[in-house]
Write a structure and sequence with these properties.
Helix content is 62%, strand content 5%. It has 130 residues and is mostly helical. The chain has one domain. Strand 1 and strand 2 form a beta hairpin. It is elongated, with a radius of gyration of 26 Å.
Length: 130
């Protein structure tokens, strides 16, 4: 089917996710059943998916641009913060994300010897987590 302005408006409203199917149908002056029929149409579904994919691409680009700033901020907090709690939280976050989560398996035997069971998966060549 050739998509009209009503179809494209319905697609935008579906993607926004703020309105019910009935409200979207009312907004584009159609019935709930017609809207369901549109959803089954290949052209409608293709446009819907293309718009979703474009939103995902834009979101990934925005996040990618923010990564350096976020890492620099974490590094600044970790190395220069006077707030030990903030620095500890950043250190824990960085270590957790790098795969060095703390091990909860710590055993103490009768002689008072502490045995730590290391259950962190390690890569074969570099000793880092997978």
């Amino acid at each position: 089917m050739k998509l009209t302005k009503r179809h494209r408006t319905a697609i935008e409203l579906l993607i926004e996710g703020e309105l019910s199917i009935d409200e979207i149908a009312q907004n584009v002056k159609t019935t709930r059943q017609t809207l369901y029929n549109w959803r089954k149409d290949a052209d409608f579904e293709q446009e819907y998916n293309e718009q979703l994919n474009e939103i995902e691409r834009r979101t990934k680009r925005r996040i990618s641009r923010m990564v350096d700033t976020a890492l620099e901020r974490q590094e600044r907090i970790l190395t220069k913060s006077r707030n030990d709690n903030a620095a500890a939280m950043v250190a824990k976050d960085v270590l957790d994300r790098a795969g060095y989560a703390p091990d909860s398996n710590i055993n103490v035997n009768a002689e008072g010897v502490v045995q730590i069971i290391d259950d962190i998966p390690r890569g074969e060549s570099d000793g880092k987590a997978d």
